[in-house]
Design a protein that fits this description.
binds heme C
């Protein structure tokens, strides 16, 4: 599963950058987050036009997001220490909610999609409130 996600992720980037004649950029937490933003916004957009298939597609991309590259993961782990468990819990929460969104969209249950999307965004913002700045600083020092 993870291998497949990485393959898809790098595959898409590879195509885009080959076309531009550049080296493929490294995956990073920031690029993962930018994809999450696109897909979270797409879910809202699809809800507004009642396109449950598009909701399900975007939710699947969120739940299958690539893993944080190992070098960044260890920087984050050394900064957060025992709090790494809480950081991971936020990730699992968002993951589980995106899986539930896909299932609810498949059932055509619009009320449930709406409720789960709200909870998922609360999970995004919860992690940001607790860790975004700290982790951003650590990763910015990386270069
Ligand atoms: C487990 C914690 C965690 C969760 C959950 C999380 N984020 Fe983030 N997010 C971060 C961290 C840490 C950064 C800072 C990364 C950096 O700047 O290197 C970040 C940065 C971002 C950024 C800014 C990227 C940029 O270009 O600077 C966006 C947008 C974002 N996240 C969207 C989301 C969305 C949407 C979700 C939910 C679907 C989400 N995040 C869930 C931790 C999290």
């Amino acid at each position: 599963m993870i291998i497949r996600c990485l393959f898809v992720f790098f595959g898409v980037y590879g195509l885009a950058t080959v076309a531009a004649g550049q080296e493929a950029p490294e995956s990073s937490l920031k690029t993962i987050m930018q994809e999450l933003r696109n897909d979270a916004a797409l879910i809202l957009d699809a809800m507004l036009v009642d396109d449950m298939a598009a909701v399900a597609d975007a939710a699947l991309r969120i739940s299958d997001h690539p893993r944080i590259p190992p070098d960044q993961a260890s920087l984050i782990a050394s900064e957060l220490g025992p709090e790494m468990a809480t950081f991971k819990q936020f990730d699992s929460l968002v993951h589980d909610l995106s899986v539930a969104i896909r299932e609810a969209a498949g059932d055509g249950d619009r009320d449930r999609v709406q409720m789960l999307h709200r909870d998922m965004v609360a999970g995004c913002l919860g992690c940001h409130a607790a860790y975004r700045e700290r982790v951003m600083m650590v990763l910015a020092d990386e270069t």
